Amino acid sequence: MTGVTDAAELRRRTRELLAAHPPATTGRTDFLKARFDAGLAWVHYPAGLGGLDAPRSLQAVVDAELEAAGAPGNDPRRIGIGLGMAAPTILAYGTEEQKRRFLRPLWVGEEVWCQLFSEPGAGSDLAALGTRAVRDAATGDWVVDGQKVWTSSAHLARWAILIARTDPDAPKHRGITYFLCDMTDPGVEVRPLRQITGEAEFNEVFLTGVRIPDAHRLGPVGDGWKVAQTTLMNERVSIGGMRIPREGGMIGPVARTWRERPELRTHELHQRLLTLWVEAEVARLTGERLRQQLVAGQPGPEGSGMKLGFARLNQEISGLEVELRGAEGLLYDDWTMRRPELVDFTGRDAGYRYLRAKGNSIEGGTSEVLLNIVAERVLGLPAEPRTDKDVAWKDLTR
Length: 398
What we know:
This protein is an alpha+beta fold. The chain has 11 helices and 8 strands. The chain has helices at 7-20, 28-37, 59-68, 80-93, 96-108, 224-240, 251-260, 267-294, 302-325, 350-357, 367-378; strands spanning 113-116, 132-135, 142-148, 159-165, 176-182, 188-193, 202-212, 217-218. The strands form 2 sheets. It has a 4-stranded mixed beta sheet with strand order 1-4-5-8. A 4-stranded antiparallel beta sheet has the order 2-3-7-6, with no helix packed on it. A hairpin with an 8-residue loop joins strand 6 and strand 7. Helix 2 (28-37) runs antiparallel to helix 5 (96-108) and helix 9 (302-325) runs antiparallel to helix 10 (350-357). The longest helix has 28 residues, at 267-294.
């Protein structure tokens, strides 16, 4: 049975899953696989691919039943790139074989994904990327050479979503193709990038003669920019539109400190805290509305506005927290170089949150680029002049 639209039916199926695979006696991975096979992973996905063709809004029904039963989750913070970016892109553009090969291990968390998009010379202007993919006429494989940067979790990833230039004679947006890259293949080298926090959750990735079979191409040759837009819109929704409770995220630690440390309070800090608390709550409720809009279709440019607000709020709130703590706020717990298994925007101490928030206006699309997207695609303002729009990539000044 597909196309489930009844909450009671989803509860029944969830309880059947729990009865057949009791969380207390079933291994975590086995339970997650059974959940996927029962169509209860992401209910709005097609039947056979972890879903039941159900409305997205009914996922909450399943999640509530599983949480009440103490069922294990798939640790979204660890596999967020796979869940939020790779999966919806594979669903939209992948072949049936690709969907069946990649979606189950991705959702279960058996295979971690990373994103090979940005380059040293193509960050904000991503379409200027220079990583080349050349077709081997003898085998049909694509041979990829280039460098990618700011790659979260590349040191843990088995697979990557990759865009590369396949036609240097075409204008920059039209000569790109989208691939799924095996990070264990020969020629893939991952090097850590140490951040201002001391950690290296980001990496740079060097690709030297990496062979990708044509079966791992996603979408038509030369249409990679269109495919990448699906990834980027989902990325911004997943970053800026995360579901959080009231006083979740950055505002939570500041509010707790305010309540627990009355000796730190001043009138000026109180006024700023009230303003930011209201803004954080507005952002949280706007995110809820955005997720409700997703029930009816694909994410649009509104996700860019959410991500833009997320970055600004995080930076202002974490700055307020450091000021509120006074001399304590200047302390830092540990500068040890680590390569963490997940991205944690709000973890550790106030100093970490302040420093980590600086990256929020860069990752997932810089705030400057997102302002253009909101202006042009949401507000309908005239586009900025683009003199390189119809110029072949190979003729661009670099």
